Amino acid sequence: MxxxxxxxxxxxxxxxxxxxxxxxxxxxxLALTSEYLDELExxxxxxxxxxxxxxxxxxxxxxxxxxxxxxxxxxxxxxYTYVDRIFDKYIELGIRPFLELGFMxxxxxxxxxxxxxxEGNTTPxxxxxxxxxxxxxxxxxxxxxxxxxxxxxxxxVWNEPNLPGFWYKADMPEYFKLFxxxxxxxxxxxxxxxxxxxxxxxxxxxxxxxxxxxxxxxxNIKPDSVTRHHYTVEFPEYDGQYAYSKLExxxxxxxxxxxxxxxxxxxxxxxxxxxxxxxxxxxxTARGVIHDTNLNAAYIAQQxxxxxxxxxxYSYWTFGDVFEEVGVPFTPFHGGFGLVAANCIPKPTFWTFxxxxxxxEVGDKCIYRDDDSIIIKGDKKYAGIVWNIDKDEFLKEFELxxxxxxxxxxxKTVDEETCNPLKVWHDLGEPANPDKExxxxxxxxxxxxxxxDVIKAADGKVDLSLKAGKNAVIYFELKExxxxxxxxxxYEKVLTFH
Amino acid sequence: MxxxxxxxxxxxxxxxxxxxxxxxxxxxxLALTSEYLDELExxxxxxxxxxxxxxxxxxxxxxxxxxxxxxxxxxxxxxYTYVDRIFDKYIELGIRPFLELGFMxxxxxxxxxxxxxxEGNTTPxxxxxxxxxxxxxxxxxxxxxxxxxxxxxxxxVWNEPNLPGFWYKADMPEYFKLFxxxxxxxxxxxxxxxxxxxxxxxxxxxxxxxxxxxxxxxxNIKPDSVTRHHYTVEFPEYDGQYAYSKLExxxxxxxxxxxxxxxxxxxxxxxxxxxxxxxxxxxxTARGVIHDTNLNAAYIAQQxxxxxxxxxxYSYWTFGDVFEEVGVPFTPFHGGFGLVAANCIPKPTFWTFxxxxxxxEVGDKCIYRDDDSIIIKGDKKYAGIVWNIDKDEFLKEFELxxxxxxxxxxxKTVDEETCNPLKVWHDLGEPANPDKExxxxxxxxxxxxxxxDVIKAADGKVDLSLKAGKNAVIYFELKExxxxxxxxxxYEKVLTFH
Amino acid sequence: MxxxxxxxxxxxxxxxxxxxxxxxxxxxxLALTSEYLDELExxxxxxxxxxxxxxxxxxxxxxxxxxxxxxxxxxxxxxYTYVDRIFDKYIELGIRPFLELGFMxxxxxxxxxxxxxxEGNTTPxxxxxxxxxxxxxxxxxxxxxxxxxxxxxxxxVWNEPNLPGFWYKADMPEYFKLFxxxxxxxxxxxxxxxxxxxxxxxxxxxxxxxxxxxxxxxxNIKPDSVTRHHYTVEFPEYDGQYAYSKLExxxxxxxxxxxxxxxxxxxxxxxxxxxxxxxxxxxxTARGVIHDTNLNAAYIAQQxxxxxxxxxxYSYWTFGDVFEEVGVPFTPFHGGFGLVAANCIPKPTFWTFxxxxxxxEVGDKCIYRDDDSIIIKGDKKYAGIVWNIDKDEFLKEFELxxxxxxxxxxxKTVDEETCNPLKVWHDLGEPANPDKExxxxxxxxxxxxxxxDVIKAADGKVDLSLKAGKNAVIYFELKExxxxxxxxxxYEKVLTFH
Amino acid sequence: MxxxxxxxxxxxxxxxxxxxxxxxxxxxxLALTSEYLDELExxxxxxxxxxxxxxxxxxxxxxxxxxxxxxxxxxxxxxYTYVDRIFDKYIELGIRPFLELGFMxxxxxxxxxxxxxxEGNTTPxxxxxxxxxxxxxxxxxxxxxxxxxxxxxxxxVWNEPNLPGFWYKADMPEYFKLFxxxxxxxxxxxxxxxxxxxxxxxxxxxxxxxxxxxxxxxxNIKPDSVTRHHYTVEFPEYDGQYAYSKLExxxxxxxxxxxxxxxxxxxxxxxxxxxxxxxxxxxxTARGVIHDTNLNAAYIAQQxxxxxxxxxxYSYWTFGDVFEEVGVPFTPFHGGFGLVAANCIPKPTFWTFxxxxxxxEVGDKCIYRDDDSIIIKGDKKYAGIVWNIDKDEFLKEFELxxxxxxxxxxxKTVDEETCNPLKVWHDLGEPANPDKExxxxxxxxxxxxxxxDVIKAADGKVDLSLKAGKNAVIYFELKExxxxxxxxxxYEKVLTFH
Lengths: 498, 498, 498, 498
Description:
GH (chains A, B, C, D), TIM Barrel, Xylan 1,4-beta-xylosidase (chains A, B, C, D), six-stranded antiparallel beta sheet, alpha/beta, homotetramer, about 25% strand
C-alpha cells in the first residue's frame, strides 16, 4: 500500500507567490551600519526583495526634523543627509523603501512616551501641520533625488497604533486623525502616491479594521491598501534575556487573516482593496529563540505556501539581525528576527525564502499543494518544496505525468542534520563573540546539502520520492536531461577503471 | 571485539608536512589569463602555497628573447613585459616562482623539435653563451625588481630531459652540459642562488640520477638539490580524448623514491642533499580521468602522509585546470591535473590539500599514522585525517589520552555522497559549456559537509569514532570546549519548547 | 575687435554621435587575459561601448575548430570552451561582439600563409562547406547560450581582403565567393542575422566597393551593411621598433569616406545601405608613436565631430594596448592603438571619447560646430568640446543665448601641460618596466584637470570663453546654477575671515 | 639679487616626523557605519595611521555595560558585541585603538549631565569599583581576542576633565581620583599596560599639568605619558550653524606646548616622560569652516614640521567627517574636522598628511627647514614640502649639493586653483545633498596636480625652484634619473614628426 500522490499537470491551484515583495528591517538608522548593509547585500544577492519596510524614518537618529530659534521665532529646517545615504544604498542594492511614516521627532512630539532601547517617540505631533509639512517635504525631496518612481513606493501611516506602546494610549480617534491628515496632505501633493493603514497588530484586529474602514467611508477617504501584521505564537515564557514561545495552529492564524479580508470585502467601497501583511513571523519578540531553528524554517515554508491566498503581499520581519529594539544582542544566536545572523550567516529560514524565490523563477503554474509540499510546473521542469514541521522523518512520494524523458533531480536540503548553524554554534560552546575560525565553521555549515540523481520517466510518468527529516525544508527541481558526453568520456568507466 | 586504536600522546612520529611548499602550474604564459588567476587566488586563499613551478618561462609566448638585425649584425634584446606581469601577480597572490629554466626560444634553438599543443621548443641552444646570458640577465632583472628575496627562489635546469620529447633524443651528455653551463653562469653571478636538477621523470630514474651525480662529482659541481618526478599509475588506456589508468601500489612507488634517496646518500659529497619532487600526481596525462574523482583525493591523502619521509618537498601537478599541453579542454571535467576545475570549482583532491594545510597549522607533533589515517596533537586539540582508498565504508575508532574535559568534535567530510562535483556534472548531462545556473549547482555541491558534536572525556581518555565511506577523506578536529551560555539561554529548551 | 562666436539655440546641425557604438580590440584570444579585461572594464566604466570587434575568432588560440580521425575518416568537432569564456566576460562588462568572421583555422586552411606575430592563417578554406558549417554552428551555439539577442550582433565577413597579407593574393573573386557562401549559409539558418562586408582598407577602396556591390547585385544578394576602414596618416618612417607618421589632411580623408558613401548610393538597390567604419585611427601601425600623444586626442576630437556625417558608425582601433600583432610591447608607451595603456593608464585620446560620450548623454541637439569645437544644447545646460590640433594656444569665445540665469561652468581639460602621461613617463626615464610607484605617478597624472566657475547671463545671453593650449581637448558644461547655501554659511567669509 | 637658499647635504636638523602615529575619530559607535569605514579605509590606504583615538568607548551606543536585577540583587553583565565589531574592523584596516577611557555608562553614572548631541554622560561613576571592574574586564576580553599586542595599545584616562562640560564641574580632585583608581587597577592586572593622562585642553593648561604631576608624585604613581590637546584659533564668531575663527600665531602656540614640556621636565621623577598631543587641529569646533580650506592645509603643513620638536606624538582631530557632536551635518562641506569629507572626498589638509607620510618613507634625515618648507635627503633622491600660509604667490629657490647627475623633478601641487573641492562645491551651488554626478565632479577635482620635469645638475649642484600659490602645499621629489629609451624611440621626434 503506497502513499504515492498522483499529480496532474493540468491542475491549476491559486498560488500568489509574493515571497520577494517586501521584507522587514531594524530601524532605518541602522541602515547606516556596515554589518547591516553586508547582510542586506547578501540577502539581495541570494533572494532579492523589491521593498524594505522598517520603523524610525522620522526618529532622531535619522535626524530629518529640526527646530531653531531666529529673531525669537521657532523655525523648522530639514536635514536629508542620512535619509539620502540610506536610500542611496537601498537603491544600489536593488531594493526600494516601503515608507512607514513614524515615529515622532522629539522636537515635534506632544509627549515624552518612547518605545524601545532606541527611544522612538510614540506620541502624536504637537501640531499636525508640522507633521504633514515634514511628510510632504520629504516626498518632494525624494522625488527630486530619485525621480518619478517615488510615486510607486508604498506608504503606510505609523505602526501598530492599536498597541499603547506604539501609539500613546492606543488612541483610535487620534490615529484616525493622523491617518486622515497625512492621507489628505499627500494626496493633495500628488494623488498618485499609494497610502495605506492602519498597520495594526494582534489585538482587536477586527474592531480596528472595521472602525478604520467606517471612518474612511464617513470621511470619504479611499485608502490604497489595508495593512496589518501576522505573528503565530502564543504569549512567550521568558528566561533571562530570552523568550520561549509555543507555535499556534497555522490554520487558526490563516482563518484570522481571512476574517480581516472578509471585513474589507464587506464594505462595498473597499471590496478587493489590497491587504498587505506588513510584518509577519512566528515569534514577535527580538529574543524569540525559535527564529534561529530549523523548525522555524519549516513552519514558514507552510506560511509562504498560503499567505498569498488572502493577501496582496506579506513581509517577513526581518531580513537581518542588526536590530536594537530590546538592545544590542549579546550573542550571534539570540533569537533575532533576521533571515541572517551576524557575519552574514544564513539561518535555516533564509533558505525557505531562497527556495520560494527559485519556485517563482520557475513559474506560477501550481499543480499541487498540501500541508507539507507544493509543486510548480515550468518549462521542461518541475520544481517544488517539501517541508516537515516537527514530525518524524517521512517519505513523500509523487507520480508526475511526463513524456518518457530522462530527468536530473536536483535537491537542496536544509534540516537539523545538514544545515543547522545553531547546533554548530551550540556545540562550539555558544561563544558570545566567536573568533574568525569559529565564524567560518558556523557559516560553512549553514548552506544546503545539494544532491543530484538521474531519473527516467516511463509509461508517461515519472516517480519522485523525497525523504524529509524532522524540520526539513527541501527544494527540488526535476529537469529534462540532455546527455551529451564528450568523445571517449565514459562516466561508469571513470569510476571503475583503476 | 573492538578495533579501537589506542593512541599515545607522547608518541612522536616523523612527519615532514610540506603540503604547502610548492605547486605545479600550466605553462607560465597562461598566468596572464584571468581564469588562471581566479583559480590561483582561490587556491591561495584556501590553501596557500609558497612556490609555484611550471614550464615555458623561455617559450615564445612569454616573449623574453629576441634577435634583430642592425648594420648586418644579429643582436639580442630582452623583453620583460610579460614575465613581470606574471610575477607581479604571483607576488600579489603570496606565491613565488620556483624557476624551471626552459624551454628554448625559437630564435635561440638549434633544432625545430617542439612539444605540446603550444609548441615548446625542446632542443639545445644554438650557442650556450646566448642561453647563459639570457638566464643571468633575467636573474639580474628579477633582483632589480623584486629585491634580494630572488636569491632564495629555487632554480631547476630544464624539465624531464630523460624523455626524448622534452629534450632532443634525451641526450644525457648534452643535458649535463646544459646543467653545467647554467649552474656555473648563475653561481658566477651570485653563488647564493640555489640551482638543482636533473628534473627527471619515470624512465631510467636510477641511471640518470647516478650518472648526474657522477658528472657533478667529476666536474666538481655541487648542485643545491636533486629533483625528480613521481607519478603513480600504469600506462593508460585511451578512448577518444581520454586516458583511463590503473593506480599502482603506493608502497612500490614509495620504495622507488627511497631508492633515489639512497643513491644520493651513497655519494659522500652529496649525502643529505635535498631531494625535491618537483612534480607528482596519480596520472601523468592532462586527460587522466581519475584526477577529478574522490578516489584521487583519498589516494593523494595517503601520499601526503608519507612523501615527506624521503623528500624535502613535493609539488602537486597542478593547482588548476588552465592547462593546454594537449589542447584546450572540451569540458570542465576532462581529467585535468588541477586541484580546481574551471570556474574555481574545487575537486575532491583540493580538500585533501586544504586538510593537510590545516593539520600543519595545528602543529607538527604527529602521534599516530597508519595506511588510512594520521593524527596530530596541538594546543588543547587533536587534529587528524582519515581516508578510505576504494574500500567499503569502515569505522575508524580511536582512544586518545585526555584530561576529563568536554570536547567539540568538528568533522569535514569529502566523499562520493557529500562532495562529488564530478557526479553532479554527470547527472546534469555532462554539459560541455555549463551555464551559470549549472555552474552554481556544481560549485555549491563541491564543499565538504561540516558536522559538529560534543564529546566528553572520562577516565583520562576520550573516544573518537569516524565512519569513512568509500573514497572518503575526513578532516577532524577535537577541541577542548568552553561552554559559556548566555543568561537564560537553554539550548535543550530552545529545541523542545514550542 | 572680438572673435566672439554668436551661437543660436535654435540651430540644429546634423550630428550623428555614435561615439559609443563599437570599439576595436586585439585578437579575441587576448580577451582571456586579465590585463585585457582590466582595461576593458575601465573603458566600459568610463565610456561604455555597445559592441567590440577584433580579429581571430577562428584562429587556433580560440580553438573552435578541430579535426580527428576515426575509423579512417576525418571528422570535425567544435570546442566552445574559450569563445564562451570570452563572450561571457564581454556580456558581464556590458559589451557585445561585433562578429568579424576570420581568420582560418589551420586545419581548415587551403594554404600556409599567416599574418602577424600570432600567425593568423589568411588563406581560403580547403572546403567552403567546412567553413559555413563552422560559422552556422557557432551562431547556433551562441544563440543557445545567449538567447535571441544574438540575432542583433552585427556580422562582418573577414578583414581587409584587399590586402594580400590578410587574404591570399588579395584575390577579389575568391573573397566574393567567401562572402556569398557565408552570407547565404547564415541567412538560410535565420535571415534576421545582419551580415556585412567587404571590410576593406586603404588601397583601391573605390574599386573594391563598387565591384563588391556589382557582385552582390548580380548574385541577388543584399548585404545588411557595407564596411570599410579609415586611417589618416601617410606611410610611416620606421626607426628600430617604432613608426613615425605624418597626419593627413582631415578634409581629404572625410572626402574619401564620402566617395564610398556616394558609390553605395549610386546603386538603386543599395541606396542608404548603412556604411560602418569598422576600424579607424590616425596611424595604422601598432607602434605608431602618435597614438600616445595629446595631438592624437585633438585630431580624433575633430574626427568624432564629423564621422557620423557619412557613416552609420565608426569603431576606434582599439580600446586597449593588449595587442600582439607585431609582438609583445617592450614598454608601456610604445605607440599602441589603445585608448588605455598597460595598467589602465588612460591616454589623452581616451578622454576625447569620454567627453563625446558625455555630450551624448546631454543630448543630440547640436547648435554649433566648426573645425575646433562643437556645442550641444541640453536641458538647462549647454555642453561642448573645444580642441586645438597642433596650434598655439588660442581663445575660443562664444555668446550663447540664455535666460538671465546664473550658471556654473565646469571644464575638464586634457592638454600637454595637465594630462600628458607620455611626458611623465619620458621624464621618469622611459622605464620599460615601471615599478608600482612609477605606475602610480603616471596614472595619477593622466586625468583631466577639472575647474569650475560661476558665470551670470545678462541681457538674454551668456559669454563663454575657453583657452585651448596646444593639442588641448576641453570638455565644458554650462549648467543653470541653483544656489542654496545653508543657514549661516557664507563662502566669501569662509575665505576671508581668519 | 637672488633669494636662493643654499642647502647643505650634511645638515642634520631634528625632525621627529610622527605624522602617522595617531589620528582622531568621531565617537567609537560611529565606527559601525559604512560611510565611516569607507573613509577610514581611504585614509589608511593613502596615509596609513598606526593608532586611532576617539570618545565614547563606554557610552551606551557601544553598549558594553549593563545591569539587571536577579533575585532582588543588581548584577552586572558586559556586552562586547559592538566593541569587537569595531575593533575587528580597525585591525582589518591596519589601525589600532588608542584607548580613551570614557564616557560613563548611564547605568553607572552618579549624575545626569551629558555632552553632545549623542549625550555622553560626563559624571563620575556611582561606584569606582564598578568602573575599574569594567575597564579591567574589557582589557582582559581584548587580550583574549587580539592577543598580547593589546598590552601596547596606549591608554588615556577620560577626555578634557578641565572643561566642566566633559567632567562634572571640571572637578580636579575627582579626576585625580578617577585617574588613580583606573591606573592602579590596570597596573594591578598587568603593569605593562601604558596609562596616561590628564588629556586636558586649552584652559588652565599649566595649572592642571602641574597639579596632576604633583598628585602623581604624592601618590607614588608614574604615569606612562602626559597628554594634552592643541588647537590654534581664537574664540569663534558664530553665524547660523557655522563657526568662523581667526588663526592664532603659530609660534605662540608652539611656545605654549613647550611650556607644558618644561613643566614635565621640571619634575625630577617625570623628566623626559613622553608627552602626547592626543588632539590637535586649527579650529576646535565641528562647524569650523576653516577646516575645509586650502589655508588649513598650509597652516597644518607648518604644524607638522614642528610638532615633533616637543612632543612624542600628535593626533589630528579627526580622520573623517562622520562625526555627530553637534548633530548630523546638513551639507558635505560644513567645516567638519575630517581629512576627508562625505563620499571620501579628500580635503586639502588630507594631502598635507599624505605628503608628510611620503616624506617619512623617504627617510628621516632632515637637511633644511624654515617657516614654509622642509627638505629630506633620501637614497638617490631629495624630497620636500613647500607651503604658503595666506601669502601672495612666491618663488622658493634652492641650490642642493649633488653629483652631476640628471634628475626627474616630480611635484604634487594642492592649492586654491588646482585642488579645491570647497570651491567646486560652492560653484555648483553649495548643494546640501549632491547627486552622484556632482559628487564625482567634486571628488575628481580634489586630487593634486602632478607634474614632472627633467633637471640636470652641474658643477656639483642642482637648482630647484618652486612656485607656491596662495595657500599652496607642494610636495616634491627630486630623483636621480636613469634614462633607458627603447630601440628607435625618440621622444623629441614623437612630438615633432607629424
